[in-house]
Write a structure and sequence with these properties.
By secondary structure, the chain is mainly β. The chain has a domain of 41 residues: Rubrerythrin, domain 2. Strands 2-1-3 form a 3-stranded antiparallel beta sheet, with no helix packed on it. The chain binds zinc ion. Zinc ion binds next to loops.
Length: 63
């Protein structure tokens, strides 16, 4: 499932968004779920150490 991670440059909120295939090229208006700002950017998939996760998702197998 193509899930992209976004970072809000306003409140530094990180969230994930499901991008439908074929619309990756289009720059959709991804708004921050926290502050509602549109100043977001795609975060390159990287293994970041989750030290403090507030209500985040854990590494669970999708079934
Ligand atoms: Zn924000």
């Amino acid at each position: 499932m193509p899930i992209y991670e976004f970072l809000c440059k306003d409140c530094k909120e990180r969230f994930t968004r499901l991008i439908l295939p074929g619309r990756e090229d289009e720059e959709e208006e991804v708004t921050c779920p926290k502050c509602g700002g549109k100043n977001t950017q795609v975060v390159p998939s990287a293994f970041s150490s989750s030290t403090s996760s507030v209500g985040g998702v854990s590494c669970a197998p999708s079934g």
